[in-house]
């Protein structure tokens, strides 16, 4: 157990929660360890208790009990985030929403769906396909993350260039606030001018304002035709310049992903792609059969102008799945470059017009280190990632990685960008948030204090709140 919460308090709280949940309350060390880590560089910080509610009412009762005792609450989805958002750094209760995984309603006519927070994106899309709805949920962060977790972190992914992020695709939520009150925000109407936009205040709040239990999500029609292609460049600059021209000429790309030569070597070894170790673009086109052909021809002209290779096509579903799974496995492929390493992951996002400059300057920063550092990203919306592979036992390498991260963040901010395009703030980027938003962070703290006056909702994440 942690030393953050008094043992007597935990014992009394555990008694209440056990009466409510039975064996869906766990103090097992292994279960607690699993709920005290994500895929970030931060050391495991297990909660004192893990609960698995199955309804809104049970979440409310858990939150009310924790509020009574002043015990921290940490929401948990699938543990696939990268900034330490699920770590119980102050002890407390991890609320695992995995059992709340029902798809509650689908409307084909309105192209929307209501789901519980524990539903994963792959589960939802498999269900939409099995019901022959002709619809899909397009936001794809790579991992099979829970939709509640994706909303809490304002997740994005490779399809954001066409379909947007969770910000654009969450229409409404049901959320349990710090006092146990259940509220519903937004709704199924496609637009509204009614009051403050509470939905988008809570989307991206990383569990610091409330526990998301249900979501209303926007769906998209499944495209009649899908085609994917790979092209390669001798240098990274012409690859990024090519992307900029494609986008500024209004070609409706579904995905444009960039892998630098180090990342290509990693995915070749891990996933067996067999690509030349050069900067590489992975692209996907959606639309009618004619539209897909036209889009590919237009992009092909820009690729040729910038010295890229001919397209290598992945036309059938199995080939496309292999290609995109290799991209989604970039994290694990990168770890395999250095046995026993952990990844210090960072991401930034800049305006498309500054993307080439930002990536080139980032590559200069990376040339100054001997650490393996693959670079890849969703260049269609100006977002890219670097994975700095460090020895978990080396304090010197951790410091070096922190310095690299700080330089990249500063570079992005100088170019009117943001310190994180999709990973969130969590534990790791709180200083960067202050640099980015200045006095705006004080307003964020005021909102946090108003909605969570006792600071029990995922404390220590996003914002540091001083005791009053």
Element layout with pairings:
Elements: H1 7-21, E1 25-26, H2 29-34, E2 49-51, H3 56-69, E3 73-76, E4 93-96, E5 103-107, E6 112-116, H4 121-130, E7 135-136, H5 147-152, H6 160-163, H7 166-169, E8 170-177, E9 182-186, H8 198-202, E10 210-218, E11 220-221, E12 225-232, H9 236-248, E13 255-259, H10 261-271, E14 280-287, H11 289-305, E15 312-314, H12 317-328, H13 330-335, E16 342-349, H14 352-366, E17 375-378, E18 383-390, H15 395-414, H16 430-437, H17 440-451
Parallel strand pairs: 2-4, 3-4
Antiparallel strand pairs: 1-2, 5-6, 6-10, 7-11, 8-9, 8-10, 12-14, 12-15, 13-14, 13-17, 16-18, 17-18
Beta-strand residue fraction: 15-25%
The separation of the N and C termini measures: 26 Å
Give the C-level CATH assignment of the largest domain.
Answer: Alpha Beta
Low-confidence stretches: none
Number of domains: 4
Instruction: Quickly give the CATH architecture of the largest domain.
Output: 2-Layer Sandwich
Which structural class matches the secondary elements?
A: alpha+beta
Number of strands: 18
The number of helices is: 17
Give the averaged pLDDT, no decimals: 95
- Helix fraction? 25-40%
- CATH topology (fold) name of the largest domain: Uridine Diphospho-n-acetylenolpyruvylglucosamine Reductase, domain 3
Major sheet summary line:
7 strands, antiparallel
Order of strands in the sheet with most strands: 15-12-14-13-17-18-16
Q: Radius of gyration, rounded?
A: 22 Å
Shape: globular
